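Workshop exercise sheet. Pairs work together: one partner reads the sequence aloud, the other fills in the structure field after running the prediction. Swap roles for the next sheet.
Pair: D.N. / O.F.
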Amino acid sequence: MERRTLRLQSLPVAVTEAERLIAAGYDRVGAWSLAQVCEHMALVITMSIDGFPSKFPWPMRVVARWLYLKPILAHHVFRKRLPAPKYVLPADTTDDAVGVERLRAAIRRFGTHPGPFAPSPVFGDLTPEQWREIHLWHCEHHFSFLLPKG
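Structure field:
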């Protein structure tokens, strides 16, 4: 099975997609369950408000910003998988509904946060709009590994 392609129009639509996956059931193309995907995304969204425990070295941030920020903001699909930092890895035993609720809470908090936002550990300082698009792209990326049944 191959990954699917999807384009989410807003962060609340990401929660709707997660709820749809619970209702329909899903097959995994990747290693993570829906609960793990949602928990991972909730961690990253929350850290975009509260801050990240570490960041990439500045030369890597400059290169990443130059090479990858614009394609990510344009929602380009990347087929290459990169390991996530340990501090955003999800637990193995989370229930799907719990993971979706964590994502819902993180998205609600992001939507009401007046700013400022924390610098990205990969791209550095970002506008709220850039953060929103990165989170949307991130949700699209991870949901692409979960195929709804039926």
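Discussion prompt: Helices lie at 11-24, 34-50, 58-73, 96-112, 128-143. What would you look at next?
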